[in-house]
Amino acid sequence: MSIDPRAGKPASNEDLVDIPALISAYYSLKPDASIVSERVTFGTSGHRGKAFKKSFNEAHILAVTQATCEYRKKEGIDGPLYIGKDSHALSTPAQITAIEVLAANNIPTLIAEENGYTATPQVSFAILEHNKNGGAQADGIIITPSHNPPEDGGFKYNPPNGGPADVDATSWIENRANEILIEGVDSVARVSYDEALKSDAIETFDYVTPYVEALVKVVDMDAIVKSGIHIGVDPLGGASVAVYEKINEIYGLNMDIVNPYIDPTFSFMTLDHDGKIRMDCSSPYAMASLVALKDKYDIAFGNDADSDRHGIVTPTGGLMNPNHYLSVAIGYLFGGHRPNWNKGLKIGKTLVSSGMIDRVAEDIDAEVMEVPVGFKWFVDGLHEGTLGFGGEESAGASFLRFDGSVWSTDKDGIILNLLAAEIWAKMGKSPSIIYAEMEEKFGRSYYKRVDAPATVEQKAAIKAIDPAKLSLSTLAGEAVEDILTHAKGNGAAIGGLKVVSKNGWFAMRPSGTEDIYKIYAESFISQEHLELILEEAQALVASLLD
């Protein structure tokens, strides 16, 4: 992956999206459902697209919201629908469109007070809090493209279990939405926004206060306060700004919000690895402004626009690699700091997450459940209380409350950030120092991800790999121990391939939202060994795509 020469440098005026033109494109450009790229397509994180490319426009939101209403009716879901939006420019018009459809369908809908922004974990939390009391079941919609560039839009559906919808739900909604696009969106039930707000169906809701007040049930806020550690937080212009302000108000942390500003162009960002504005709190380039302040704070952290991802900055380690922090968080939580958790709780990890997690888990006698990419695979385990923790290498995770009950079934970057402060407060040292100690004990991990362009046909070829037809007996000089097309933890299809040896592995899979394929690799021997693994993986891909 080549690094743009401006990566990590402040965005310039030329990098900023034209917001009026973007909003105009949302309303004026009409998608053609006969073109694959202009249809509704649910990947691992809902439907995402660009108004300028006719993949995220008013017609898409009319169709997908109507399809969601029909799905609710089919499934007998008749409780309130919690809807939230992040601070991307397209999220506000998309929420307006969705509200017009929800009101016309007489769906009891709860929107944020004062047209505010709502983090993904707050919607999951609100759904679960409502549903634990029984009665009519609630679900939710989150309008966000997560950490994607400012011109992008996104739409996610969370069913009554509070987490990302599984493929059965998303496939039904996607197919029905595209039927509506083909038929014409004039058939969609809709009222004006003014009528919707005046209707009995739409009510305002405080997403912030109940969530913040309940944080004491999942993170040791008292230990953080007593420690007096100096914390810096950068919400990266996202939905967590109000959350951190409320945290300071309620708990009185020694915490500075270094960037409390909302700007739909995200002009305050530093550019990501490819020279684009991207609110990726796991990227040292996107987080360069906060990383530059690392010596000012005992610990610092950031979130992406919808706050489902976390990024941890320490004076000694800079921005922690997400795999490193996941390993530390798991070792801490399962290593005696949640004494009321059941002994048999499992650790959820995606198959492209670091093998360090497996080594830590073995040391503390905890079982790992390895699943395909996508947080949806952790939802049932977190909801039922059989998974204590579920995490992805892309810096998304959640974990149970102190009493072992569910907190959120979607990624929660806010509690992962606060956990880093708890770890510092309780252990007297930063997570990066603890990870360095792990490497001394378990060996050093060398990890890398490589992205490459791929056509629809090439992506399909990667998905269809038959391991029986592969002549792979060694990987970078070591005997191959496993060739997997289905995850060990739940038997679900990977959508690609994973090859494992004693001290290394690689996995390849096509992206669900971009025209690329991804190769992930790790070595516990050396950087040279890692590069050899990647060479062999890329050669295999080349042979498949010839």
Put simply, the count of helices is 17
Rg over C-alpha atoms, rounded to the nearest angstrom: 22 Å
Strand arrangement across the biggest beta sheet: 1-2-6-5-3-4-7
What is the total tally of β strands?
Answer: 23
**CATH architecture heading of the largest domain:** 3-Layer(aba) Sandwich
Low-confidence stretches: none
Percent strand equals 15-25%
Major β-sheet, in short? 7 strands, mixed
Secondary-structure content class: alpha/beta
Distance linking N and C termini: 22 Å
What's the CATH topology name of the largest domain? Alpha-D-Glucose-1,6-Bisphosphate, Chain A, domain 3
| CATH superfamily annotation of the largest domain | Alpha-D-Glucose-1,6-Bisphosphate, subunit A, domain 3
**Judging from the principal axes of the Cα atoms, what is the shape?**
globular
Q: How much helix is in the residues?
A: 25-40%
Which CATH top level class of the largest domain fits? Alpha Beta
Please outline the helices and strands:
Blueprint: H1 19-28, E1 42-43, E2 46-50, H2 58-75, E3 81-85, H3 91-104, E4 109-112, H4 120-131, E5 139-143, E6 152-158, H5 167-183, H6 193-198, E7 202-205, H7 209-213, H8 221-227, E8 231-234, H9 241-251, E9 255-257, H10 288-291, E10 299-303, E11 310-314, E12 318-319, H11 322-333, E13 346-350, H12 356-363, E14 368-371, H13 379-384, E15 387-392, E16 396-399, H14 413-427, H15 431-442, E17 446-453, H16 456-463, E18 474-475, E19 478-479, E20 482-486, E21 493-500, E22 504-510, E23 516-523, H17 527-545
Parallel strand pairs: 3-4, 3-5, 4-7, 8-9, 8-10, 13-14, 13-15
Antiparallel strand pairs: 1-2, 2-6, 5-6, 10-11, 11-12, 15-16, 17-23, 18-19, 20-21, 21-22, 22-23
Helix pairs in contact: 2-3, 2-5, 8-14, 11-12, 11-15
